[in-house]
Design a protein that fits this description.
Elements lengths: L1 H12 L2 H36 L5 H29 L1 E3 L6 E3 L34 H4 L8
Antiparallel strand pairs: 1-2
Helix pairs in contact: 2-3
Bound molecules: zinc ion.
Length: 144
């Protein structure tokens, strides 16, 4: 019991910073999981279509909707992750901007806010992800 008390004291002493780091790692892990699932679902769609090109489109639509649900989840988690780091990511040019600002300093685009009505809407190019960029970026028309 004494040992547990001591342990709790130490836990309470853990700084906010450490908490943020573990929260951030947790989010990163969840994002990675969703990204991997999306790649799998894309593969499922391809296999389904290959096996039976006359498949009822509704069956494929269910999978597409699943991808969108996961993309929204990722969007929210990436936003939260950036919040922990203290910046917002510009949806237009990808710049990292201090999260106190409402507009991007590089391109002037309005920065997203979780309170926005359209926060959960998906940008055509926001399925670009770091961990699976070769796959996701296949149809990208970004000029680097
Ligand atoms: Zn920008």
């Amino acid at each position: 019991m004494g040992i547990l008390d001591k342990f709790n004291d130490v836990s309470r002493g853990v700084s906010e910073k450490t908490k943020n780091i573990s929260e951030g790692n947790n989010l990163k892990r969840k994002i990675l999981y969703e990204e991997e699932r999306i790649v799998e679902i894309f593969t499922d769609i391809g296999k389904k279509y290959y096996k039976n090109p006359n498949e009822d489109p509704a069956a494929l639509k269910v999978l597409c909707d699943d991808i969108d649900t996961r993309r929204r989840r990722i969007k929210k988690m990436r936003y939260e992750l950036n919040q922990i780091r203290g910046y917002k990511e510009c949806p237009k040019c990808g710049a990292e901007v201090n999260d106190r600002f409402q507009f991007c300093g590089r391109c002037g685009a309005r920065l997203p806010d979780m309170d926005d009505d359209d926060f959960m809407s998906l940008e055509p190019n926001d399925y670009y992800t770091e961990s699976s960029n070769n796959f996701f970026n296949a149809d990208s028309n970004k000029n680097y």
